[in-house]
Structure formats: C-alpha cells, structure tokens
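hey so u asked for the seq, here:
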Amino acid sequence: MLNKVPEVTIWFWVIKILCTTVGESFADWINMKLGVGLVNTAWIFTGVFVVVLAVQLRLKRYVPFPYWLTVVVVSVTGTLYTDILTDQLNVPLWISTAVFSVLLAVVFGVWWLRERTLSIHSVTTLPRESFYWLAVLVTFALGTATGDWTLELTGWSPGVSVLLPLGLIAAITLLWKFGANPVLSFWLAYILTRPLGANIGDWLASPKVAQPGEPTGLALGTFTTSLIFLGLILATVVYLTVTRSDVTETYEAAHAVHTTGDLRKERVGLAGFALLAVATTGLLIWAHSQPHTGPAPEEDNTSAVQMAPGEAVKKFPPAKVAALKTLASTSLKDAQSGDAKGAHAAAQSLRDLWDADQASLQPLDQTGWTSIDAQMDKVLGTFGIDHSNPPMPPAQQEKELNALLTDMG
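ran it, structure tokens below
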C-alpha cells in the first residue's frame, strides 16, 4: 500500500521548520492585526483544519501540496489552542505542558495498542493516518506550551532561545545516527521543531529597538515574516512535487530500510535521551536562577515617563490611535455597567492590537510608546491579563482605563 507521509529527508525537516514559523507569525497576524480575537481565530482555523484534513484523508497516496498545507494549518491551530489556555483561561504554562504531554502519551498508547507501530513509514491506512494527524496536532500544542514556558523560566530573547531547541535537535540527530530508536528520535525532534520555528518567527518579527529587558529582533513584522516563509514553503513544495524526492512508494520498501537496528545501541541511545533530558532540566534551572529582567523592573523603568495628555501618541497614525481608544472605551463602558466578561474581552483585544502595532509604532516615537506601554501594562494588570494576579475590582479597572484614555488624548 502507498504511504501517506513523505520520506524523512533533510527537505522534510526544512519545510517542517518553515511551517512552524508560519504557524507562529501568521496566527499572531490574523489574531492581532485584523482584530479577529484569539477564540474566533481558533474557530476559523479549526474549521479550515477540518476541511484540509478531509481532503488529505481522501487521498490514496502522499501528495506534497495537500499534505504540507495540512501541516501549516495544524501548526496554526495547535498553537492557538495553547494560546487560549494561556491568555484566555489563564492556565499556567507548566500545567499546559503537563496536560499536553499526558495527552500525547495517551494518543501514542492507543495508536500502539491498535496498530503495533508508531512509525510514520507505515501510515498506509485511514486509522493510522488519523492517529498520525492527531499526534501532530498535540505535538504542536505541546511544543508551543513547552517553548513559551522555557522563555518564561529563563527570560531569554527570541534570538538566544533558538539555540536550545536547535542544540537538542542536533543531539537527537547524533544519537539517531549512533543507533537510537528511529521512531522515538523522530517524534522527539518533531516536537522540538515547534519551539524552534516559533522562536525564529519571533526573532524575525520583533522590533530592533525595544525597552530594556524586551526581546529584540529584525523588525520584519508578523505579516512580512509570514509572507517570506509561505513563499519558501511554496517553493519547496513545488520542488518536491517536481522531483518526488520525498516519496516513499510502499510500506515494505520503507520498512526494510528503517526498522533494522541494533538493540544494544537502542538501549544506549535511550540512556542518551535520558541524560539529555537531565542536562536540559539542569540548564533551565540554572537559567531561571540567574537575574533577568521581568515585568516588575520593566514597569518601574517606564512608569517614570510622564507626558502631557495626547503628547505620547502625537507621532502615531491617527487611525491606529482611534482603534486603540475605541477598545479602551468599550472596556471602560462594560466595566462601568458591570459587564465583567465584556470588559475583560475588550481589554484582551486592546492588548492584542497594541502588541500587533508595536513594530510600527515604537520606531516612530520610542518615548511616547514607552509611556503608553507603561499605562497599558497597568490596565492589563487590573484585569489579570499577562499577570499572575487575579482581576482587580471594577473601580481600579476604570481608574487605569481612564488614565490610558487621557494619555491617548
């Protein structure tokens, strides 16, 4: 029977990392730039995922374009599910990481009990392919949670944070070359490509000029980053379609190549994976213990900036300022009327829009942006958004929203 998954070549990993980068940047652009909102964005991409997956499942063999389109969509969808838990439901990242780890173990367990193989070189039936795509979806959600939790623990910038998953993937590759179990090696590397691609996307999209302690990048923005990587994905898919260099024609042929192994080397490889996990844990504990700039120092630095009403946004495009003021006013009205849910949702949308506009507004007026950002952080703090504290009383929310509206003129 024909295999439904491409051969694992260097092209597979290149395009997989490209897809994960798009998953991060494109989701951010749709969610924040267009003001759709996190939950609505998740619903949209869930619907798209169902459609593209249905097309993929109906195919009798691996075809590059629908396969990689499904990977792109599932990368965005899995990322959004984790973001909803973190940003909307305020679930700590370590809990999300634990939940998705258990869920992935369950998927693999049921898959193994039913099919007696987890190899992607044997995805030749509908049940196996269904398990495969479910596992892929969970790996993206897990990779997002794990990557974000790592950044939260360490305070690393996106550029620096690229090095950890990159180094781990390199170590896994060496262990696989030595003789470690290929199936385990594949899925470990597959999970790690998510934080690697996300960190690359953040590094490219983040502004060059930032506050002390803020991540810096190449200032391409989420839209430009998405276009670049979508173009690279399209070019790679066209190449693979023409050359068919990633096609595994039959399970039997792939099976003969990929399942031969030395049991002793596999045990040594398993010990190597365990040692790698211990070393990574030690590195994260050490990085967490090191002094790094967090929310509190950042707020202290910016709170000293005092500007006259309207002065901070004087150099910003009026349309962008008006959009921010509309959301702030909506949140204020809902808070005043006792609609806590509506006020929180409007404040969340305000945060999303402000973050999306950072790359374009901050270079226009660093001082003005810093002043508004400081007050914006106070507003978000009253709602418990991006802060560990619970929501504050409506009176405090109204006070900070009024102050923000005054600052914006």
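The chain is about 75% helix and 0% strand. The mean pLDDT is 83.
lmk if thats what u needed
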